[in-house]
Amino acid sequence: MENTTTAQTTDTTVPQPGDPRHGYAIVTGVVAELIAAVEPDQLDAPTPCPDFAVRDLLEHLVLNQRNLAGLGRGEAYDFGGSATEAWGEQFADASHQVMDAWTDSAKLGRMYEVPWGTMPGAALIGSYTAEQAVHAWDVAQAIGRTIEIEDAVLQPSLDGLKMGLPAEGRTDEIPFGPVVVPTSPDASVLEHLAGWSGRQV
Predict the structure, then answer these.
(1) What pLDDT is stored for residue 45 in this prediction?
(2) 53-69, pLDDT tens digit by residue?
(3) Residue 20's pLDDT band (boundaries 50, 70, 90)?
């Protein structure tokens, strides 16, 4: 009997530059290292994100990962959930879920409904990349650390954020303050992301 093989329809290659999953994976790695660097006595420290202490942002970072994984599995956006303590372990677990849920490249072109609109998977991952990066900046500022993410990795997310979050017309219903433009001519894209999100950079 002649042996036959069935080609898999799932893309299992490692995301390359230009693929939104590539940038998201890089930001995920930065966040994981940052979570591991937080000391217990820093958990209640205030952050540049209004009304969020460090512990609140650690939980938020974990829940973001879980939500992106759920969306990739075809689940609805989850407004609830909790992640208390052991944030590093929970973040790592959720990150593996994201990787598994978004392995199929076809999902990048499918449409997904989230509280801030309906968008294709590629744009959705870009928006999560921006949010995770900004919150990583928030945590780093709160605990006195510096993080670096290459400009080329974050530029697509900054471009997408500017399209989805206009500079004008921000109200109390939108959880972003006025745009802050970095004064340094050498400001990184990460700093521009933070500034567009209303952070003092």
Answers:
(1) 97
(2) 999 999 999 999 999 99
(3) very high
> What gap in Å lies between CA 132 and CA 154, rounded to an integer?
11
- The CATH label, of 3.30.70.1650, 1.20.120.450, 3.20.20.70, 1.20.120.230, for the domain at 20-150 is 1.20.120.450
| Residue 117, phi then psi, degrees to nearest 5 | 140, -175
Stretch (H or E) spanning 111: strand 111-114
Which tokens in the block code for residue 3? 């042996």
**Which pLDDT does position 75 carry in this prediction?**
95
Note the pTM of the prediction, 2 decimals. 0.86
Q: How far apart are CA 192 and CA 201, in angstroms?
A: 8
Q: How far apart are CA 68 and CA 97, in angstroms?
A: 9
Name 173's Cβ contacts closer than 8 Å, sequence gap at least 6: none
Q: How remote is the C-alpha of 200 from its chain's centroid?
A: 20
> What span, in angstroms and rounded, lies between the C-alpha atoms of 110 and 121?
6
